[in-house]
Amino acid sequence: MPQTPIVYDAPTPEPRASTVEAIQAEILERLIYSVGKDPIVARPHDWLAATIMAVRDRVMDRWMESSRETWRTSHKRVYYLSLEFLIGRLMRDAMSNVGLIEPVRDALKNLNVDLGDLINLEPDAALGNGGLGRLAACFLESMSSVKIPAYGYGIRYVHGLFRQEMSEGWQVELPEDWLAHGNPWEFERRESAYEIGFGGHVEPVTDPDGEVRQEWRPNDHLLAVAYDTPIVGWRGARVNTLRLWSAQPIDPILLDKFNSGDHIGALAESARAEAITRVLYPADSTAAGQELRLRQEFFFSSASLQDIVRRHLQQYGDLGSLPDKVAIQLNDTHPAISIAELMRILVDDNGLKWAEAWKLCKGTFGYTNHTLLPEALESWPVALLERLLPRHMQIIYQINADVLAEARQRAKFTDSQIANVSLIDEAGGRRVRMGQLAFVGSHSINGVSALHTELMKQTVFSDLHKLYPDRINNKTNGITPRRWLMQCNPDLTKLITDTIGPEFLDDIELLRGLDAHAEDPTFQGQFAQVKRANKEKLARLIKDRLNIVVSPDAMFDVQIKRIHEYKRQLLNIIQAVALYDEIRAHPERDWVPRVKIFAGKAAPGYWNAKLIIKLINDVAKVINNDPAVRGLLKVVFLPNYNVSLAEVIVPAADLSEQISTAGMEASGTGNMKFMANGAITIGTMDGANVEMHKEVGADNIVIFGLTTEEVNEKRAQGETPRSAIEASPRLKEALESISSGVFSPDDPDRYRDLIGGLYDHDWFMVARDFDAYATAQAEVDAIWTDKARWNAMAIRNTARVGFFSSDRTIRQYAQDIWGVPAAAE
């Protein structure tokens, strides 16, 4: 069927007026004619839908023009493939970026509706877990802001990551129903639907010219249907697209089964297809869970690549120019199967020779590595891949043969080096290493902080780096200053604007101008006043959600992130127990009041992480209700951590806990968000903390603990942690009180094994870093009592955060990896 030619200069409607009167009239029109409600009986969710649609209409013109401009100019496009996009609420983001917050607020006020109430009513899109997904969201916004034509590709999870609730201090996972009432930001694209296959077999087919090619004939098919969401750049510079795939069955109901009385079996195909996009990260502790996760990853990778190739052929007609017009970035190993899928599309579907296809593939892909943890570098059983994706397994074997031949013949690798670079791990069951696949199939492999990138070269990819020494490069992560300063902290943004002018809004590096005011008592007072107001807001939220009263006068000591042993929430809560003991033992001392605030989710199958959450809540129950503490120490765990909750916590934080075991955090981005909002960091020299230390200066950050080299030495020596515990009376006492049941009288043995692990191996260096951590916390107390010094440090943190803008990161990707122009600052 011939394709309809694209008209590049179709007439564009006149831009909509953005006056208060025009917006007010349009909200009413949308309420009546789109939502179907009379203003007299409209509920808050009706006003929210009407307001979103009125804002969305003003985004649409920019969205259409952005797409047309890319087609007209034939600019290279960037395609960002990520299993997560933690985009959060979109209405305030869109309003802020196109300058509509004030007129919309005034329009709603005239209608007796409060904009703040509507913003809080919008559900968070449950499309991600933590830093990886939030980074992808920041990157999309920055690509729009610096005018890079881009698509984000991911999965439209119906439930996404679970909703976390607490039952007697234990994490309970419940379905997240963010799509229950629809999503006014998305548009279904029925014309962009692709068939995805699984299973079946591969047959050789002889073409008329005598060439033999392989043809995959799957026995299991479903449809990937696109849903598009506009992603608005700062000042509406550009609107890019987040395209999410929804899985749908080819045949929604098997009528023969239904009519024969098998009403459940008739829907089995629908259930199997829809399971793929039902939940983010299904537990993979079972064979069925592993298969579902692999199906997810192939599903969205295949749909995205089919879409990319279709768009490229539609515009350019041939695939030889693919690397010149297309840059595909793999966000971690989740989309790594894309390497094999693109080769299948090029060789099997489009008849390219293997060598030419491999050259195009490497020229098109870039791979971002986010972890050095072996368990997070995905691998799949060969048997599973052979059954589920038989043609892709053939392709992986062929890629591996070429790589190993090159390693042996050109680089003269030894057998052990060959084993290290092989795509197939032969030890302990044959598995396909997805990190290796992504590495060999990409022209660029980047780490996400300077330390992480160097460790990649030395550890997980050391031999691949020797084989391809020009591929690894660093791109330190960043955050979008629009959401993580301007939107979540409007009072601080106004203070900065009044002090150094508004130019920093367009060039975040200009925040350096605040350095000149860091010692100014008047500015310090204003800065502290903003922080106080943000702390009062968080204190109200804590009271509303947990019925715990905390004082805004206390230091808000915050650790919010995914619960994982390497992130060491355990170290934090053990120090809280030790501090609790000291406060009771020495009531005469002048203690600094503290509120230790935790939030984060544990993976459903990660028992120790869930046990740490329970421990935090058990400790909180005892400390918060002990009159001997006199309110000097409170412990709070806020459930269901998400972007919207972070937007309240981050501006209120005084102290930012970035205390991962050195060498284990790839970068971190929460550390940057806290820095932007004037929190002081206590942390190890890990991830991007290293670069933060450099940017902010040693006098404005509190660093403690073992270095990466020292951690590796202790692990290699097999040194027992028991000696470190015995040498620290306060640590020993805290551990004994936890393990003996002081905080778990209903189950005295609850934490015996968790604490026992610190005596036996302490892989994450909790015990061996404890004294250094406690000393650093005492230093924090000393700084806190000197308000002028504390405020100066906090101000300098905000002033020097410019380097950690995702705009800077994206410009570096654009120049060094993607080969696309980005707008100058």
Provide the β-strand percentage band: 5-15%
CATH superfamily of the largest domain: Glycogen Phosphorylase B
Distance between the termini: 45 Å
- Percentage of residues in helical conformation: 40-55%
What is the average of the pLDDT values? Answer: 95
Number of strands: 22
Sequence of strands across the biggest β-sheet: 5-8-9-2-1-10-11-15-16
Task: State the helix count.
Answer: 33
Q: How is the CATH topology of the largest domain named? A: Rossmann fold
Sequence stretches where pLDDT stays below 50 over 5 or more residues: 1-5
CATH architecture of the largest domain: 3-Layer(aba) Sandwich
Radius of gyration, taken over Cα atoms and rounded to an integer in Å: 27 Å
Decide which structural class fits the backbone.
alpha/beta
How would a textbook summarize the main sheet? 9 strands, mixed
Shape: globular
How many structurally independent domains? Answer: 2
CATH top level class name of the largest domain: Alpha Beta
GO cellular component, one term: cytoplasm
Organism: Devosia epidermidihirudinis
Cofactor: pyridoxal 5'-phosphate
EC number: 2.4.1.1
